[in-house]
Specification:
Radius of gyration: 22 Å
Shape: globular
CATH topology of the largest domain: L-amino peptidase D-ALA esterase/amidase
Structural class: alpha+beta
Number of helices: 11
Number of strands: 15
CATH class of the largest domain: Alpha Beta
Distance between the termini: 35 Å
Largest sheet: 8 strands, mixed
Length: 401
Amino acid sequence: MNRNLTDVRGFKVRGAHIGIKSKRRDLALIVSDVPASAAGVFTRNKVRAAPVTLSAKHLENGLAQAIVVTSGNANACTGEEGEKAAQAVAEKLAQELGIPVEEVIVAATGVIGVRFPTDKVLKGIEYNVKYLSSRRVYGSMVANAIMTTDTFHKESFQSFKLGGRVVNMAGIAKGAGMIHPNMATMLAFVVTDAAIKPALLKQCMNSVTERTFNMISVDGDTSTNDSAVVMANGMAGNPEIVKKDEDYRVFHDKLEEMCRDLAMAIVSDGEGATKLIEYKVVNARSEQAARKIVRTVSNSNLVRTAMFGRDPNWGRIIAAVGRAGVDLDPNKIDIYLGGSNPVQVSERGGVADFDMKKLRRILRSARINVLIDLHQGNSEAVGWGTDMSYEYIRINAEYTS
């Protein structure tokens, strides 16, 4: 069994079925033995679920000790009743653990605009807190408990050294549709036993999110519930990271690596997807400009349907580049499709001389690389998306039925 959340010092978890969904697990608890530095990044959608608003407020002091996640009901667009429900969930877990309510992070995922089953959740918390455990099998149960339309649970784990001490880090995530984070129902939770100042952890999480969770797209829909939270309880015993030194850089790189793993797991599980597509923009004037182009192209319905249909219509790609809102010279753009031995389909914004048979073979692959060279600077960005299939339409047409 792979190492997971339970292999991080000082964390106990529980994943259980409490009846929000008919059969599958729908309650997840993640608890640190001690208060932890914590940071979160949340949806920028103006319509925010009640748990998002509450958790953002609770993280203002940079501390947390527990996370509670419910699956099957988003508690979004539920008005004052939903706000009271989120507060009640936080208060119940705080009471059961004997910790301040401000140190409880609340998250939810599922159908929007449905009354939240508060009583059922409160009873579920009361019953399941006593079964919190660091047994490894429980880690996978938690990852399973936050799923909705996901076809597999998403976990990541790694160990590394900070200040001569071995540090562990683990993460879980969920998401398959409504994915176009702008920090869909995308959730991600990372725990580590590293010691790091809350302010630096927040800076680190913000930076990492821009290059990972904010660079994936399945369908262009930013959810009401997007949340990515990291907790660092310091129980590895490393010297606390208090400035942007070498230990900070190591921690930043490892957190980015983990969040990239989770982000790619989300996009590879895209609803109805048959292909995972990596988009890379190079030689841009700035990283921000490159990211903007990546997000525009990966989110293009015309590009994604062409990928599904194995249609070598590279004009859809360059058209999406042109509407990304980035100042560029279209007569300098080269576009390549493929991996280690790609086909150049556009040369200086015009038609390249390429092998159509080879290109069609590439488009039959389950993984496709798209490289866009702007020839205008030294910056780059990479992101990931999927194709759009008939199955995506079916899944989402029947979501609440």
